[in-house]
Design a protein that fits this description.
The protein is mainly α. The protein is 69% helix and 0% strand. It has a single domain, classed as N-utilizing Substance Protein B Homolog, Chain A (Orthogonal Bundle), CATH 1.10.940. The protein is globular.
Length: 149
């Protein structure tokens, strides 16, 4: 069975997209107003979109990114032309979510990770930010998932 094709009918995919959007918002928020990751989970539990999200996936993204942020930034720095801290906060948040998924969620195809990140960048990022996000995550996927191509 072709897993990529089968997963397109998975109802969790739409919910995971909402989880990624909320994780982007939470990671943006923590960049402009530092605080414990547990507070993000509590704060976003009442977000308007949370009923449509995959709550477990959102919680995993927040916990995984927040507790592994230094390591994620170090990995990300390999694919960037600047320090992660010098990135626009929206782009940084999107790249944290995408990098986390590429590193920690091999069950999510790299193309899905990139497409979801580009979609978020088009919606929330700067005018051509999606091109930057695509290029960085494509470099990341080549290194992290060479057998998936």
């Amino acid at each position: 069975m072709n897993m990529a094709k089968a997963s397109t009918h998975d109802p969790r995919l739409g919910a995971r997209s909402v989880s990624r959007k909320l994780a982007l918002q939470a990671m943006y928020r923590v960049q402009v107003n530092e605080g414990p990751w547990q507070d993000l989970i509590t704060e976003f539990s009442t977000a308007e979109d949370m009923p449509r999200a995959d709550r477990e996936y959102f919680d995993e993204l927040i916990r995984g990114i927040a507790t592994g942020r230094d390591a994620l930034d170090a990995r990300m720095a390999e694919w960037l032309d600047r320090r992660p801290d010098d990135l626009d906060p929206v782009e940084h948040a999107i790249l944290l979510v995408g990098t986390y998924e590429l590193v920690s969620r091999p069950d999510v195809p790299f193309r899905v990770v990139i497409n979801e990140a580009v979609t978020l960048a088009r919606k929330f990022g700067a005018t051509d930010g999606h091109k930057f996000i695509n290029a960085v995550l494509d470099r990341a996927a080549r290194e992290l998932r060479p057998d998936e191509r």
